């Protein structure tokens, strides 16, 4: 019998503040097994040749590993773009896409969404982003209504950049604003002022040429509830199609964490304060008529589908390109080397610049379905009953009952609905469910 009590939440008067001692996300490789290096090449060839059956939905991701500066809070910074680096890197990505595009396994499913992430994609020259987007459109089987997202920073969205992205086929812009408060922005290494950010975003949104989504972060040092409420007000007034609300993640080794340790900057919000800021955001957006379509994402208009993010959480296949990208086909997940020299050398040799390859366990389809349900705040238990996972639902029932008692969810027949507190603590809930499934697989 599996003991689920270790995953119980604290029962208190305000679960969003103290249901768990820490937020513990589920790492993507935790339930997967590394493939030995000597087997990677043969398995990869089978994946692109169509030996590995594709899943129903497919995505594509392009990783641009460059930034113009290292913001204090960021743990993803790797490379500063050097002179001549933009066209050279774009050439490599284009060659990588073009070379494998004709393989049977690559064209096996239409691609529902494309995402250019990083790093900062808009660190590239506009013409090079346009070239990459046009290559994706020409070489890959994009669905007629494919969502094509370009992620970037406020200061990069010049009229030239916007025109190039649109000409290349972009349909959606995801812009890392983090906060509109100039002082908080500057302390985190953001270059544009709050007023400059408002002007750029206002002009972009007014064009109505593509879906516009803003990323806001809560929990920065010196970011009071009043500053956070003002961020939300400005966001609504600007009128984007969607907004993401992300908790600040204090990443070990990032400049912010080091600055706090050395007393150079104030401590960020603790977990209890982060929970309160999340609640302020959720309540404010609900009152303003926004629709919450995932735990961190809200839509103001119907043009915002958030398709890439929702499908990736449900385990959709994802074709990956660019140094540091990660993807998956069928049972296998893979990552590309993040170092530029090995990436460049592999492309020039005619090889896929693979870094790692992992294979999922037998419960992967069930895990994906549960992860997708947790992500949108609604989990259908009837699916668990229908699949071949004997004993799983009876094992989970005491856990669901306890989480309901703790104020993290409510039951409606076979449906589990997360409360606002449950959405805030969703990483812990998903981690617990995956741990229980792993234990059942071990004991089977």
TrEMBL record:
Superkingdom as given in the UniProt entry: Bacteria
InterPro entries, A to Z: Aldolase_TIM, Coproporphyrinogen-III_oxidase, Elp3/MiaA/NifB-like_rSAM, HutW, rSAM, rSAM_sf
GO cellular component, one term: cytoplasm
CDD domains: Radical_SAM
Needed co-factor(s): [4Fe-4S] cluster
Domain Radical SAM core, first and last residues per copy: 52-287
Keyword annotations from UniProtKB, A to Z: Iron, Iron-sulfur, Metal-binding, S-adenosyl-L-methionine
GO biological process: porphyrin-containing compound biosynthetic process
PROSITE patterns (UniProt xref): RADICAL_SAM
Gene Ontology MF term list: 4 iron, 4 sulfur cluster binding; catalytic activity; metal ion binding
Keyword match Metal-binding: yes
Iron among keywords: yes
Stored SMART domains: Elp3 (SM00729)
Name of this chain's protein: Anaerobic coproporphyrinogen III oxidase
Native source species: Thiocapsa rosea
């Amino acid at each position: 019998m599996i003991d689920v009590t270790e995953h119980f939440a604290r029962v208190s008067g305000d679960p969003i503040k103290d249901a768990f001692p820490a937020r513990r996300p589920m790492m993507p490789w935790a339930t997967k097994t590394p493939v030995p290096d000597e087997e990677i090449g043969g398995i990869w060839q089978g994946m692109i040749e169509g030996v590995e059956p594709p899943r129903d939905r497919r995505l594509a991701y392009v990783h641009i590993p460059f930034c113009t500066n290292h913001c204090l809070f960021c743990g993803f910074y790797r490379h500063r773009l050097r002179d001549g680096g933009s066209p050279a890197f774009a050439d490599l990505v284009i060659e990588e896409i073009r070379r494998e595009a004709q393989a049977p396994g690559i064209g096996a499913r239409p691609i529902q969404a494309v995402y250019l992430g990083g790093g900062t994609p808009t660190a590239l020259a506009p013409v090079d982003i346009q070239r990459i987007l046009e290559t994706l459109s020409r070489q890959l089987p994009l669905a007629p209504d494919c969502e094509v997202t370009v992620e970037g920073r406020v200061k990069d969205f010049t009229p030239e950049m916007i025109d190039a992205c649109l000409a290349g086929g972009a349909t959606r812009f995801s812009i890392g604003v983090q906060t509109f408060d100039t002082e908080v922005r500057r302390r985190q290494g953001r270059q544009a002022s709050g007023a400059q950010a408002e002007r750029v975003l206002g002009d972009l949104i007014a064009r109505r040429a593509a879906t516009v989504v803003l990323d806001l972060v809560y929990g920065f040092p010196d970011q009071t509830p009043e500053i956070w409420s003002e961020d939300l007000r400005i966001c609504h007034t600007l009128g984007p199609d969607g907004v993401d609300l992300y908790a600040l993640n204090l990443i070990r080794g990032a400049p912010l964490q080091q600055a706090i340790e050395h007393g150079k900057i104030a401590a960020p919000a603790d977990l209890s304060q982060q929970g309160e800021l999340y609640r302020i955001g959720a309540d404010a957006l609900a009152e303003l008529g926004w629709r919450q379509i995932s735990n961190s994402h809200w839509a103001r208009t119907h043009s915002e589908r958030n398709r890439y993010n929702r499908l990736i959480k449900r385990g959709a296949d994802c074709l990956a390109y660019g140094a540091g990208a990660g993807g998956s086909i069928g049972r296998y997940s893979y990552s590309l080397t993040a170092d530029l020299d090995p990436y460049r050398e592999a492309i020039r040799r005619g090889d896929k610049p693979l870094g790692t390859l992992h294979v999922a366990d037998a419960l992967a389809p069930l895990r994906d379905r549960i992860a997708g349900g947790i992500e949108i705040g609604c989990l259908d238990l009837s699916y668990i009953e229908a699949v071949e996972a004997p004993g799983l639902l009876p094992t989970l029932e005491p856990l669901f009952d306890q989480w309901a008692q703790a104020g993290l969810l409510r039951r409606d027949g076979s449906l589990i609905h997360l409360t606002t507190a449950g959405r805030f603590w969703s990483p812990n809930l998903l981690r617990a469910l995956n741990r229980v499934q792993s234990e059942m697989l071990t004991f089977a």
